[in-house]
Amino acid sequence: MLxxxxxxxxxxxxxxxxxxxxxxxxxxxxxxxDTFALRATSVHIGDGTVVSNGIVVVKDGVIQSVGNAAPDGxxxxxxxxxxxxxxxxxxxxxxxxxxxxxxxxxLTPTADVxxxxxxxxxxxxxxxxxxxxxxxxxxxxxxxxxxxxxxxSPATGEILKRRAMVSLGMSxxxxxxxxxxxxxxxxxxHLSKAFADADAKxxxxxAKAGAMPVLIEAVNRAxxxxxxxxxxxxxxxxxxxxxxxxxxxxxVIKDSGxxxxxxxxxxxxxxxxxxxxxxxxxxxxxxxxxxxxxxxxPAAMRMTAAAFMRNxxxxxxxxxxxxxxxxxxxxxxxxxxxxxxxxxxxxVVWSGNPxxxxxxxxxxxxxxxxxxxxxxxDAR
Amino acid sequence: MIxxxxxxxxxxxxxxxxxxxxxxxxxxxxxxxxxSDGTSWTVxxxxxxxxxxxxxxxxxxxxxxxxxxxxxxxxxxxxxxxxAKVVTAGMVDASARVNTGLTSVEQSSEVTPSIDAKYGIDxxxxxxxxxxxxxxxxxxxxxxxxxxxxxxxxxxxxAGAADLEKRMVEGADMICGAIxxxxxxxxxxxxxxxxxxxxxxxxxxxxVEWEWRSALFEAGQAAADGAGKDIDVLQDxxxxxxxxxxxxxxxxxxxxxxxxxxxxxKEGFGTMNLVIDCGAEAWKEPDLLTRTNTxxxxxxxxxxxRTRDSALMPLETAKxxxxxxxxxxxxxxxxxxxxGRIDVQAGLAMxxxxxxxxxxxAVTITPAQIxxxxxxxxxxxxxxxxxxxxxxxxxxEITSRPVGVxxxxxxxxxxx
Lengths: 380, 416
Description:
heterodimer; A: 380 residues; alpha/beta; Urease, subunit C, domain 1; TIM Barrel; eight-stranded mixed beta sheet; seven-stranded mixed beta sheet; 11 helices; 15 strands; disordered N terminus; B: 416 residues; 2 domains; six-stranded mixed beta sheet; globular
């Protein structure tokens, strides 16, 4: 909630901010060309450090500085609460429907899922209200090489990065009778051939060269072990999505150099799922979560983090998983995922600690634009 | 019906059987700590059936780093040894069906020789532990029988490392396929669903045989090099370098398999190394099998009259194969028939007329020879893998069961 101090002291005069009470740029307005600064009780940088009474300075949608001071002439708006980087979720299908599933073929690695992204879908605002400023839209799990994933902003509708990741389905979800291949052996056969035959600069060739990360869906331990070995053999970089019971094969994952993306977990999930997260944390393997808001609701990712924390995951790792680690896995870690100079001003103002389930989202800024104001009655 | 009631009462008896040969828990526990890798032990048995024809009494078997390093006859158990009434070699199931579902076989084509079954195997499947506890220490896993030529099988230990590569055993390379109704069962005729590849696959036994013959002819007539992965495999199959493991339950299907081999020989393509899997009616064609030197892996004895594909397999089947001099192994297959355990199959074969020694060989050294792993498995001899079954009584008696199992020195079932 914004304080009276803010109302009185702000010098923001953005012409696009005609909002009655708040002098923050109005929700829904384009990125402000102006400079503004926010001061919060705590600023969670995203790498584990927390700046008390931190000030974040934003100019032209980009973070200028984070610390305890603002440049002369820039008025500082106080917010009561915590500022954290916007959440980033892997795999999101809101508004995509079945447009990400080219069901006649199992391998269409050059397909571009950003063309299935509908920025106008009404549900995106629910993700924004839960603190999401970026999600990765992926081809369907039922494909083997369904195309390239894209990083998009649910808040601004921008495609932040198309052809961000090569999406590979290497689990039984990608196999069905009726479309070739129908077996694991066939899957590996086709995929090996597709990588071998890939034209230079095509997504698979780029993945092999380490220039484009992969997002490999592999669910059970046998699938994860086979996929990790396959990725290592080809020198692929990226993450395995779905390796939820991997505590005893952490060494194989570590050896592959891949990160992990967990699917939504509830508080009552198997002990082995929780042990996996702890084992990965201990082994120093970065992991993130899927958003899956279209299936599990916009709060599923936060609930997943909370469920893991309830079983011993550190809040620091949980927040990294929802921010910087996710950005790194999606290949946008240089520009997104933490509150640092030069990065996109994707900021969420929380009523309390962002990993605390009792905290609420008060404001969301996407690329410096004030896109959500809870007090204005926006969807939450 | 008689069989069923026999089994039911037998199972109850087995459950109630006291494990008198196993020392009471706690008496040895303190001194039994092996080295940290848990693959070194001493095992004492009143009798060791070695599968070589020899029985060693009061033997102390020394296991070190997963291998049998010494066998000392005529000695008492030591303070550190694990004791059993009888010890045999770990059993070998040449036709196990652990975790081979529809994703183990590439159905988009009916002939897929270069497909590798290993990708379809889940080393974490709970059935591995069950199999190990039943005394099976080595298995041959084939792709599911939905294809004419399904792909390469894998020889695997049933316990040990979770890592599949570490559990694989180097042995005979064998291509796996089927003759009979299985590969054609689910396919539709040409006027069926037009969008599916199933409608171009064989729908009859005749069609299945034609697919085999056409694939082998194509390979036989192709250039020796550069004709592609599938052809390379089939050329090795024709030359006998890769074995041919063909599921054929019925007389007509067993004939088809043998005739195919003979036809390929006549064409000058080579001598295939044929093994009949699930050869329930092999006993009806002894001459055919002996003249082509074909080994047989039997399916489980049917509990309800007939096996799959309606083949007739009486209890005398194993005895008849023995009398004809045919190499045969017993198998619990997918574990769905007749109590699902390989020791029960051996017991039923004895009921049909095999001696205990013969039944033992049919679940140990013979399948090991068929799989080409007799250098490592199949007998209790110094230098072999420490694959051992510890019994609470005479093996294959209805009141006996494995109470301890070592797989490559790893204690998969602890008798203590």
